[in-house]
Amino acid sequence: MKLKQWVARVVIYAIGLLVLAFGVAFSVNSNLGVSPVNSFPYVVSLIVGKSLGTCVTVIFISYILLQILILRKDFQWINLTQILCSTLFGKFVDMAKMIVGDFTIPTYAGKLLMLAISMVLIAIGISIYMGVKLVNMPMEGLTAAIASRISGAKFHNVKVTVDCVAVGTGVILSFIFLGGLFGIREGTILSAMLIGKIIPFANKMTLPIIQKFCFENN
Description:
- By secondary structure, the chain is mainly α.
- It has helices at 3-29, 36-48, 52-71, 82-100, 108-131, 138-148, 155-178, 186-214.
- The longest helix is centred in the last third of the chain and has 29 residues, at 186-214.
- It is globular.
């Protein structure tokens, strides 16, 4: 593989993380609930008083530990680079939230539109950074690890289940430590059910472009 293709993969990977981070920012500002993958970190950020990006980094590292427990000897130690990726993503989330600021679209229909935008951005971001085949982000790495242990399981179907578990954990912590439901609403549930379904459509758009710039001999 040519050097420029490796560089292209790294740059496109970072772009995927950035798109994903903006999807998170839009989900927060929709006020209909944070995206599933970040619902757990969001509740933790409210509990401990730290930034969402910081809590994303710490919790994503815990997902790497779960991958090690699930895969055991099949875990590839190169995947520890997910720690670096988690740190970068955490920084992107804080940056995206700063750029988006307090922007919201008034009315419930406007909130639904922001939620839809967030789901599309998250699906596209996942499709982009997974498409370059460098290293999975911890949540997707965990999803892939679980899928590898279930005969005939498809990634996007397992992702729906993993997202729902993350949301459920956030709900429990929210009630225990915050005395109510915070950051998790109907939008979170919709995202948990739909983002995994949107990814195959995002793949049709992103993968041919990624193939051209990252893997074909030009």
